[in-house]
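note to self — DONT lose this again. spent like an hour looking for the file last time. sequence + predicted structure for the chain T wanted, 123 res
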Amino acid sequence: QVQLVESGGGLVQAGGSLRLSCAASGRTFSRYNMGWFRQAPGKEREFVAAINWSGGRKDYADSVKARFTISRDNAKNTVYLQMNNLKPYDTAVYYCAASSTAFPSTPDDYDYWGQGTQVTVSS
């Protein structure tokens, strides 16, 4: 069992930055691949970024490449999402998730989810 708690969301102007954190409980955090997803009002949940258990593999949605960076610190049981040059269309609730699947690619591949943190980007 893994419990995930996101933090770091807030209101920021376009062009600004935020760093999201996701703290995980349990001793097996380092065994999980981790992902960030987001969901805007009236839209489906969409993939943002993912990192494998060791941090050696990272994947990003095209819409955030070169602006967002995912990282993890297994000693702190935490995964991060550094978001730079934020755009109004980045506004959404951001969720972190943990997956035991080798190469998770869809929300269904993830086993545990956090409660989400709101990110609002004003123009």
